[in-house]
Structure prediction request, 180 residues.
Amino acid sequence: MNYNEIINYWYSDKISKQWYASTPALDKEIKDKYEKLWLSALKGELDNWQSTASGCLALVILLDQLPLNMFRGEAKSFASEQKSIDVALYAINNGFDKEIDTKKLSFLYIPFMHSENLEHQNLSVKLFTDNNLTNNIRFAKHHRDIIEKFGRFPHRNIILGRDSTNLEIEYLNSKHAFKG
Prediction:
């Protein structure tokens, strides 16, 4: 499989309509189709994809987005988060983000929004703002505000086996809680 297949799949009408509203059937489809490829990417076996802008984008989608579907509700869904951040940083540092169509660019930057590192969160807000990706700016700021307040995403605590603080529990029980 080459990286164009990932891009074509992810941006297809069928999948793009479910980016933020997946179903168990779609999660299974993605797992059946891409789990082995994801494992290869996690092991560094697809690092050569980083030679192009499209390859970086595909690798970020494979490492950041697809695990959230494949392993929904499991700690494993975050296993390749840092590698996706590394690939996104590499792409930006090499100017590849300037080669990616604006309609696809947000997914190159989303790993920073998923990070529990405040520096990454601030970078997320900056990238979405500087590139006028208005549909994402509000979400980037919201994610950053959660990390500023808690230093992590409280909704991940149970999945990751972390104890929640009283403040996090109060937040998670509120109507304003972000649940992932």
